[in-house]
Amino acid sequence: MSDIKIKITDRDGVLHEVDAPTDMNMNLMEVVRSYELAPEGTIGICGGMAMCASCQCYIKSDHSLPEKSDDEEAMLAEAFFVEDNSRLGCQIHMTDALDGLEVELAPEEA
Ligand code: FES
């Protein structure tokens, strides 16, 4: 069992510091869901396939993240509220390198 600490600011601007396991093959969207930091049905709509952007978040810390896949790039090109530091949470897998990551959930589309 190994955990990393992540700071997540929810859509109401409330900061949550949570432990995320690195040994369960979880992604950031699943971590947000597991702590219920966004209402059911507003995040992870496509199930983590990089096809909905409901898991968009802004990366606030300067961790170096894996490059975006073509699917992630394409989805972010169509999404709302996209900033330079936008990523799809479902494409960010929890690894030891992300200890201390700080993210903010993007506003809900729709
Ligand atoms: S959950 Fe749909 S793009 Fe991430």
UniProtKB/TrEMBL annotation:
GO BP term, example: P450-containing electron transport chain
Span of domain 2Fe-2S ferredoxin-type: 4-109
InterPro entries: 2Fe-2S_ferredoxin-like_sf, 2Fe-2S_ferredoxin-type, Adrenodoxin-like, Beta-grasp_dom_sf
Molecular function terms, GO-annotated: 2 iron, 2 sulfur cluster binding; electron transfer activity; metal ion binding
Entry keyword set: 2Fe-2S, Iron, Iron-sulfur, Metal-binding
PANTHER family associated with the record: FERREDOXIN/ADRENODOXIN, TRANSFER PROTEIN, PUTATIVE-RELATED
Name of the protein in question: 2Fe-2S iron-sulfur cluster binding domain-containing protein
